[in-house]
Write a structure and sequence with these properties.
The N and C termini lie far apart (about 110 Å). The chain has about 800 residues and is α/β, with parallel strands linked by helices. The chain is elongated, with a radius of gyration of 52 Å. The longest helix has about 50 residues, at about 210-260. Bound molecules: adenosine-5'-diphosphate (ADP). Adenosine-5'-diphosphate binds near residues 379 and 522.
């Protein structure tokens, strides 16, 4: 079977000579050999493998006569058993130069194309296909246009040969030496890697000029393809070259290092780092950065100081979590259990967390974590609550304290240009977390500072802004780090010092402090078991009586939370544990009288109500970071020149409150029954016991006024009344803060009646019912009402000249016991 094979060329001097016995018009009957995958052109010398039996017979017949056959290409290249209708009708008369019998029985021939022939008719199909054909002669005249066309084709061909990796260069030389236009076209077409239909097209184009034109189109197409191929090839080559070069250089470097005796450990280290980087799941930017740094290390001696700096840096990149993430536990019931197991009360926070988990179940990952801010005094469980939330969600928990942070670099790290630079607290904590979605607690956000070293709050803004924190930049890392999956919880003792921009980003949750009852519960249910366990007394059957715990709360701690209480319980437990360890007898039930022995004498004397009504002393309610308490404000009058002295480390606002109270007393002296001369001839001394000085604020106003009026009128103030409220010059009473804590403090101190500004009535919802039941609340709008309630016998019928009619209208005091359900 004739198949496509390398084509050879020859320049026969007398190509036409071998042909004999032509009929009319050159008509000849010839054995036909169908060609697969190729087209033979005149002048072409080519070997053909002959496989099909009919073709072998055709060749045998030709050899027996004048060695001439007619080669005609098949229309379908895949077809084996072809009939005459499956062949083109223009073919080439060819002369068999050689016949080779192969050892495997097949036949191979070398044929030379002679001239184009048109098949007139097929005369026989079997056993040899035969056809009558006539030669086709064409005009070979060389016009100028043809000459130009020949040159153009030659120049295109030259380019194709240059780019082609299969065409031999001497094809061009051969083409250059062909003078006839038609022949030139045939020769070039025969060498090009084009398919059978296009070859046949060239064969069938009889006009040489047209043939050249079509060929030039094919050449141009070929050139395009080759150019593209060459571009791709160069690119690929470049890549290969570069990596080969790098490989070569690295090998060289290794050899050099080996020579320097720095053989394998370093290479192994670098190799391991490379592997780790590949496996770390870093985003592409980070991986490139890490790889670049590694390449710098490779060029360095491990003894160079820079080497270990880079190594530390790469380690940081590797140690940070990039994709590792814990699966959130979306089990509401289990979460609720966990929260209750760790904390007593605090229903609001627990509800908020369960809401979050519930919404998360519905919305999935789309739900951004809330940024919570727990505000409250120390020891109320802010940190432990954060831990408990992490446990409920089954996330890791990390903390970073912001207390006293002045420098932006503490949050964001130092640039690597600094010696000893390290990442900031955020990144450090993320490394500890080891996952991208921990619960991250930022403690003491109210204690952030700011100075010339930059504003840490600004850096924190970036951390806490859900829009920006997916690309947080730490100066040390110098690559963006995604914090968007982190659940941030911040804590603060006070809300006011938090920069407003930060405050706006957070959901504030207040933990105001516990009542004595709550502390008792917490101690019994949580602190005691924890401390007994921690001190190895779980088996020892030790119990604390309720009175003991109360004593610990009242006399040994002074706090809104339970941290010191826990510490004191721990201290007692340690004493017992020691006795147990020493195999001495130990008490099973701890009673109040034993505390003295274990802890020393009581440390705190909470304000307790005065034992009797006194002149010049009024009981105020204060609120400090340790919770609420009462404070006795004392005023004494002595002979002098009408001066006002204030003692007890009072702040500016408190001093102004005292002035306002004095001015009120003066303006209403007559109505209050005060001798006006007092103001000129007596000195007034106001003292607020230091321990009780609250957060500087105006809330002691009415207490100051009451104490003043009492001293000036020499009427005693009721000892069981405590009060809070700001006073205006005209005697109006304005609302104040910290009501819950103040009320709790007053209750603890044994106060019976509490005077509150009317506008603070709504704050009482936060006060536990059992406390409310034991107190009488009075809501006041004006100083007159305060006077009416605070003095068992009012100093005088009160008529104030300054109060307006509308104020008179609200001047009935609402005296009521708050029902338990309020
Ligand atoms: P904060 O962070 O507010 O200063 P902590 O979280 O450190 O307070 O709490 C101090 C201790 O008090 C912890 O051991 C904590 O478990 C315990 N604690 C605080 N509140 C509660 C509560 N409601 N129930 C149980 N334990 C509590």
């Amino acid at each position: 079977m004739p198949e496509e094979v390398p084509i050879l060329f020859d320049f026969p001097d007398d190509a036409e000579n071998t042909i004999d016995s032509e009929g009319e018009g050159g008509e000849r009957e010839l054995p036909v050999v169908p060609l697969i995958n190729t087209v033979l052109f005149p002048h072409m010398l080519t070997p053909l493998f002959v496989g099909r039996e009919r073709s072998v017979s055709a060749i045998e017949e030709a050899m027996a006569r004048d060695r001439t056959i007619l080669t005609v290409a098949q229309r379908e290249q895949e077809m084996n058993d072809v009939g005459s209708s499956d062949l083109f009708t223009i073919g080439v008369e060819a002369n068999i130069q050689r016949v080779l019998k192969m050892p495997d029985g097949s036949t191979s021939i070398v044929v030379q194309g002679q001239r184009r022939m048109r098949v007139v008719r097929f005369v026989q199909e079997q056993p040899v296909m035969r056809a009558v054909a006539v030669p086709i002669y064409s005009d070979e005249e060389k016009t100028i246009a043809i000459e130009a066309m020949m040159r153009a084709v030659l120049s295109l061909y030259e380019k194709v040969i240059k780019l082609s990796r299969t065409l031999p260069d001497d094809s061009y030389v051969m083409a250059m030496n062909v003078d006839e236009p038609g022949w030139l076209a045939d020769l070039i077409a025969s060498t090009l890697p084009i398919d059978v239909p296009r070859r046949q097209e060239i064969l069938e184009t009889l006009d040489p000029e047209e043939r050249l034109r079509r060929l030039s189109i094919m050449l141009t197409q070929e050139l395009d393809v080759l150019e593209l191929e060459s571009r791709i090839h160069t690119q690929v080559q470049k890549e290969v070259d570069r990596s080969q070069r790098e490989f070569f250089l690295r090998e060289q470097m290794k050899a050099i290092q080996r020579e320097l005796g720095q053989d394998d450990p370093v290479q192994r280290e670098l190799f391991e780092l490379r592997e780790k980087i590949a496996a770390s799941g870093m985003p592409d930017v980070v991986r490139h950065k890490a790889t670049d740094e590694l390449e710098r290390m490779e060029l360095m001696s491990p003894a160079a100081p820079e080497y270990s700096v880079i190594r530390t840096y790469v380690d940081w990149l590797l140690d940070l979590p990039w994709t590792d993430q814990t699966e959130d536990l979306n089990d509401l019931a289990a979460a609720a259990k966990t929260l209750d197991r760790n904390h007593y009360g605090l229903p609001f926070v627990k509800e908020r967390m369960l809401d979050f988990i519930a919404v998360r179940q519905l919305a999935g990952d789309r739900l951004k974590s809330p940024i919570l801010c727990f505000v409250g005094p120390s020891g109320v469980g802010k940190t432990s609550l954060g831990r408990s939330i992490a446990e409920a969600l089954d996330r890791r928990f990390v903390r970073a304290s912001l207390g006293g942070v002045h420098d932006e670099a503490e949050i964001r790290g130092h640039r690597r240009t600094y010696i000893g630079a390290l990442p900031g607290r955020i990144v450090k904590a993320m490394k500890d977390a080891g996952t991208v979605n921990p619960v991250f607690m930022l403690d003491e956000i109210d204690k952030l500072g700011a100075d010339f070293r930059g504003d840490p709050a600004a850096a924190l803004l970036e951390v806490l802004d859900p829009e920006q924190n997916n690309a947080f930049t730490d100066h040390y890392l110098d690559v963006p780090y995604d914090l968007s999956k982190v659940m941030f919880i911040t804590t603060a003792n006070l809300l006011d010092p938090i920069p407003p921009a930060l405050r706006d980003r957070m959901e504030i949750i207040r933990l105001p402090g516990y009542t004595e009852e709550e502390k008792l519960h917490i101690a019994r249910l949580f602190l005691l078991p924890k401390q007994l366990e921690a001190n190895g007394l779980a088996e020892a059957n030790v119990r604390f009586s309720e009175a003991t715990i109360r004593q610990l709360i009242r006399a040994y701690t002074y706090e809104a939370g339970v941290r010191n209480l826990e510490r004191e319980i721990g201290a007692v437990c340690r004493k017992i544990a020691r006795r147990v360890a020493e195999k001495r007898s130990y008490p099973r039930l701890i009673q109040p009288n034993m505390l003295m022995r274990y802890l020393g004498s009581a440390r705190h004397n909470h304000g307790t109500a005065e034992s009797q009504d006194a002149i010049g002393v009024a009981t105020g309610m204060s609120w400090t970071a340790n919770g609420g308490d009462i404070m006795a404000i004392e005023v004494s009058i002595m002979d002098g020149k009408g001066r006002l002295t204030l003692t007890g480390h009072l702040g500016e606002v408190m001093r102004e409150s005292a002035q306002a109270a004095l001015s009120f007393a003066r303006a209403n002296a007559k109505g209050l029954g005060i001798n006006v001369e007092h103001f000129e001839k007596r000195d007034i001394h106001i003292h607020v016991p230091e321990g009780a000085v609250p957060k500087d604020g105006p809330s002691a106003g009415i207490t100051l006024a009451t104490a003043l009026i009492s001293a000036l009128t020499e009427h005693p103030v009721r000892r069981d009344v405590a009060m809070t409220g700001e006073i205006t010059l005209r005697g109006r009473v304005l609302p104040v803060g910290g009501v819950k804590e103040k009320v709790l403090g007053a209750h603890r101190a044994g106060i019976k009646v509490v005077l509150l500004p009317s506008q603070n009535e709504r704050d009482l919802t936060e006060v536990p019912n059992h406390v409310k039941r034991q107190l009488t609340f009075m809501y006041v709008d004006h100083m007159d009402q305060v006077i009416a309630e605070a003095f068992p016998k009012a100093p005088k019928p009160v008529t104030t000249k300054t109060s307006s009619p509308s104020e008179q209208g609200v001047r009935s005091s609402k005296r009521k016991s708050v029902p338990a359900s309020a």
